[in-house]
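Troubleshooting log. The previous structure file for this entry was overwritten by mistake, so regenerating from the original sequence record. Sequence copied from the archived sheet and checked twice against the printout by T.R.
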Amino acid sequence: MVPSHKAVLLLGSNVDPEDNLVKAIRLLHGLGEIQKISSVWESQAVGAVAPNYLNASLVFLSTNDLAQLKEFVINPIEQVLGRSRSIDKYSPRTMDIDVILFDNKPIKMDYWQSAFMLIPFSQVAPEYVNPITSVSVLLDAHRLKAQSWIRERPGVLDPVNDLDLQRPGSP
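Regenerated output below.
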């Protein structure tokens, strides 16, 4: 069946993140079509003293609607990779996959001014207009990159080079 829904996903991990990002991408590749993938970006944990996070964003095509994507793709991948949900929403995690955009509709509105989301997102959807600031995400990413501690981590996704994924440049 031809994929009919387009999602932009944000992957994040601060427990064995180099390994878990690669595993999550390989699992996603088997459940839909990955069109583009950002670089990996390292940032400090928010809300708790915890290891730094690694984040990447990707454009994912799927036959699943939003609810099905979460239930049959995202949640099972998080579980396979050892995600343990707790009352503490800031606890370290092996894998967190968030839907940022679904069929061109913004999701997770609280992330739209965060460097950890916006910088990787801008690499896969630079033409998109930020629903919070009404300017291009690329411009917002440049602004946030100058104001935040965040750094690109080249080479982390080298193990998925065999998947022949399109990788854009830095913001």
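The chain is about 30% helix and 25% strand. Archived copy saved in two places this time.
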